[in-house]
Design a protein that fits this description.
Structural class of chain B: mainly alpha
Order of helices and strands of chain B: HHHHHHHHH
Distance between the termini of chain B: 34 Å
Distance between the termini of chain A: 63 Å
Helix content of chain A: over 70%
Oligomer: heterodimer
Chain lengths: 52, 244
């Protein structure tokens, strides 16, 4: 396990690369879903304000 | 075909279609990503020259490939947006630019992290690296234009024009390693007749590239659905769908 994590001495280059890549994928997914919910809420609020 | 193209160009038809397609793309995307990561980190052998450090290419190459693919797709959407003024194409340009900028930044960062142990430096001003940096600025330019202009249609037109003009940089990035003498290595994967990679390394790389493309498709569709809802917020189909 330690050998795997050490990546033959390249750990400080390999793991941040994978971290950035996965963060980009997960982050973009998360923000896309969050933005969708936010926009639905904003439209609903906007309409409630118009009705009142 | 033509009818289908026009039908999908209309937001009320595109919205449910995009929702279904996002799920269809997400499932194989996640499975391929997990299998690709297993191959990249565990089953692919170490490189005889670069040791374990070469494993960065399994994330660097998909990010770099997507940085070019996304911009090319934006240029196609720009043509459609300028000629037919389709809202779906206009929305795609900006939503894809967010993701394209992210992938370009990741490609540059992972390239730097690979360059330090292999070249001895994080950055050199060679043709591939510089043209990729220009690509990042083009993405940021599209996003800045969209934010700067208040009128949505005007902003979409300006973004389409920049996406189209900036497409000239895509072949420059791709062929930079052939046209100029660069520190960056030449093509290895795109030589399909004789890829200069062992198949145990090539397959995980192709899996990672395909997974990233499928997941890009998923995320861009989710983003587009939200953008279309906002742009069409005053229309009847949005109100009916949200049951307002």
């Amino acid at each position: 396990m330690q050998e795997f994590l050490d990546m033959g001495g390249y750990a400080r280059y390999v793991w941040p690369s994978y971290g950035l890549f996965l963060l980009m994928l997960l982050g973009s997914w998360g923000t896309a879903i969050h933005r969708g919910r936010q926009i639905r809420r904003k439209i609903a609020q906007y309409d409630t304000m118009q009705d009142s | 075909m033509w009818l289908w193209f026009h039908k999908l160009g209309s937001p009320p038809s595109f919205y449910p279609f995009a929702g279904r397609l996002a799920v269809i793309l997400a499932v194989p995307g996640v499975l391929l990503l997990l299998h690709g990561l297993y191959g990249a980190l565990l089953s692919a052998p170490a490189d005889y020259q670069q040791g374990e450090g070469y494993r960065i290419i399994f994330v660097h190459v998909p990010a770099a490939w997507l940085s070019l693919f996304v911009y090319s797709a934006m240029a196609v959407a720009a043509v459609i947006a300028l000629i037919w003024r389709m809202k779906v194409a206009e929305v795609f340009i900006v939503d894809a630019a967010w993701l394209g900028a992210g992938f370009t930044a990741v490609a540059l960062a992972t390239g730097m992290l690979w360059g330090k142990p292999m070249w001895g430096t994080y950055w050199v001003w060679d043709a591939r690296l510089t043209s990729e940096l220009i690509l990042l600025f083009l993405y940021l330019g599209v996003l800045a234009l969209d934010q700067a202009l208040h009128d949505e249609r005007q902003a979409a037109r300006a973004c389409s024009l920049l996406a189209l003009v900036g497409a000239i940089n895509v072949p420059i990035v791709h062929y930079s390693v052939e046209w100029w003498n660069t520190l960056h290595q030449g093509p290895t994967v795109s030589k399909f007749d004789s890829p200069s990679m062992d198949s145990r390394m090539l397959w995980p790389l192709l899996e990672m590239a395909l997974a990233s493309t499928l997941l890009f498709g998923t995320v861009v569709l989710v983003r587009m659905r939200a953008s279309l809802l906002w742009r069409e917020r005053h229309s009847r189909w949005v109100r009916q769908m949200l049951e307002i």
